[in-house]
Records
---
Amino acid sequence: MGHEQDPLLDNPAALTAFRAALLGWYRKHRRPLAWRDSRDPYHVWLSEIMLQQTRVEQMEPYYSRFIRRFPSIAALADADESDVLKMWEGLGYYSRARNLHRAARLIVNRHGGRIPDTREALRNLPGVGEYTSAAVASIAFDRDHPVLDGNVMRVLCRLLVVETDPRSGAGRQCLLGAAERLLARGQAGDYNQALMELGGRICTPRRPRCAVCPVATHCRMYASGADPSRLPLKSRRAPKPHYQVAAGVIWRDDKLLIAQRPAGGMLGGLWEFPGGKQEPGESLQECLVREIVEELDFSIIVGEHLISIDHSYTHFSITLHAFSATYAGGAPRAVGCADWRWVVPAELDHYAFARTDSRIIEHLRRCWE
């Protein structure tokens, strides 16, 4: 994309028509999402944090439950982290929940319980970056800031035929400059949501619905007749590593052992069935025995295989193999974990688990029925 006499960016009449068409479509066809009907900045902030790397359809029920449980910033700030993590359970990327909780306490202590109304002040909150600060400032406080999320980047790459990876430094700067020029000032909140909605429902990654796009007449990719799904370009990424992991459902009489992950690490603060990555040359059973000694300093007897679960994270994937095991001796202590508990099965609902461990629990309950 070049800025020399761009048919959209350098044409005031075209810009006005583009904004009007996009906003008109949005106001008529926008999805009735709970946070859109609220002017409460807390609701806007919460929705934007939850929507980071999560689809609207997946996030909606979590949002509603979370608001019922923590109806205000003060209620969230007063909560224990374990309660916050439990309400977030299954939504993934748990650092979002921990940062949200930390930010709520900071807002109460430093801002009198009111969310800051500028992009710069919002950026100082834990878990709030460039995109989220711009989104909250524009949607909740009518600040004139453009946003760049995945949906918006895809729309702009096709609209303006940007043939640079939008996640590269050069590609991002190009899109930021274009987004500033396209912004409907004075209507930034609705405009930004309209652009995100367009990317989520019309200008989709595959099989975009160009025939019903409200701004197709302004789209250079559409005018060219080329396949719009070839943009945005993506740089080739190295394949993600895959690990084999063993976990133990460890019984002592009628109780089983759960361990809490260290607060500062991945999935920090969540509970799990303890275990870890298989090392070269060892069986999964040997891996589990070793990991329990390293994490909790006691011995077990490994029993039957229960279930294997494939799961993908951002930078790697795993196959988690769960085994039944029996306590064999020693006094458990938190060596490589934050805490541990012996619990009866009915108490598992009181703890927040990562998705893989929740699937182990689901499997156990089916076996117990």
---
Amino acid sequence: MIEKLQFTSQGQGQTLVFIHGWGVNSAIWQPLIPELSKKYQVITIDLPGFGMNQHIQLSEYSIDNIAKLIVKSIGITADYIGWSLGGLVATHIALNYSEYINSLITVASSPCFVEQAHWPAIKPEILKSFHQQLAQNPEQTIKGFLKIQAMGSPNVRQDIKQINTLVMQYDMPSKQTLSDSLVLLETSDYRQSLNQITLPFLRLYGRLDGLVPKRGIHLVSELSPDSTSYVFQRSSHAPFISEPNAFIEQLEMWLSQH
């Protein structure tokens, strides 16, 4: 039997669960915690194989197994905030474990991360090159990916430095975990399921994001017409790093209304 995932919890009140993206860990959320924990119980959790849960290995690294393990580990109903790959996991929780979730907030995420006809996203050859690079030099691959997440930001050097400082607090995940989780980005497609989400749903984006292009936002709005979206004008793939105060303001305003 797989043990429960470890997580950190700070503050009291309405529970917010933050799920990180590919290649990073829960430390990425640390800049938000001091302010948010004044009003909320803020939980940050590492995906299996990452951060403080690096020792937990799943026999099948699937989104369903990850989602199931997260909600069982947290054990209470909460608002889920998922960034990038974490947005896919949070979306899966909303669709399949709705008894554990009050509202869904995705950050710089997409129901499908791979470019297809009439669907702007990451080009398949880029994801393929990440697999090839992982096989040769995982550490360099992660560093390159972290740079991509800040590219386009007006404070790109500062953002990259902060992201690296936060993420490097934990040891790197294994090459297998990185590869398995990258496959989730390549193979997951929730486009036809979004209209089944009936709980409050907020989508947050960065205008300068090269991984989740702005031109695709309206397509997601068509798939989920009851959801709300907001675009941070001076952010790329990590708006909570580029514009933390504006991010907190938008999040708190929306939560207070829902």
